[in-house]
Amino acid sequence: MTLRLDDLRNGEEAEIVKILGDGPFRIRLMEMGFVPGAKVRVVRYAPLKDPVEYEIKGYHVSLRHEEAAKILVRKTT
């Protein structure tokens, strides 16, 4: 079942399936490691629920909900 990255909750892990969109935003995400097949885990939500901290390839990256909504994932946990 494919979900958006922003649908995951604290501690959940998923595999990236697809990055929606194009241009500089998509390139920036891919440069940060958000590529199909990569594993990503939700570390924590900020106090106001935005942004969200993710762990990918050993790095911690924060994304806003609107950015995470453009990343399609498949849950692994």
Automatic annotation (TrEMBL):
<dbReference type="InterPro" id="IPR052713">
    <property type="entry name" value="FeoA"/>
</dbReference>
<dbReference type="InterPro" id="IPR007167">
    <property type="entry name" value="Fe-transptr_FeoA-like"/>
</dbReference>
<protein>
    <submittedName>
        <fullName>Ferrous iron transport protein A</fullName>
    </submittedName>
</protein>
<dbReference type="GO" id="GO:0046914">
    <property type="term" value="F:transition metal ion binding"/>
</dbReference>
<dbReference type="InterPro" id="IPR038157">
    <property type="entry name" value="FeoA_core_dom"/>
</dbReference>
<dbReference type="InterPro" id="IPR008988">
    <property type="entry name" value="Transcriptional_repressor_C"/>
</dbReference>
<keyword id="KW-0408">Iron</keyword>
<feature type="domain" description="Ferrous iron transporter FeoA-like">
    <location>
        <begin position="3"/>
        <end position="75"/>
    </location>
</feature>
<dbReference type="Pfam" id="PF04023">
    <property type="entry name" value="FeoA"/>
</dbReference>
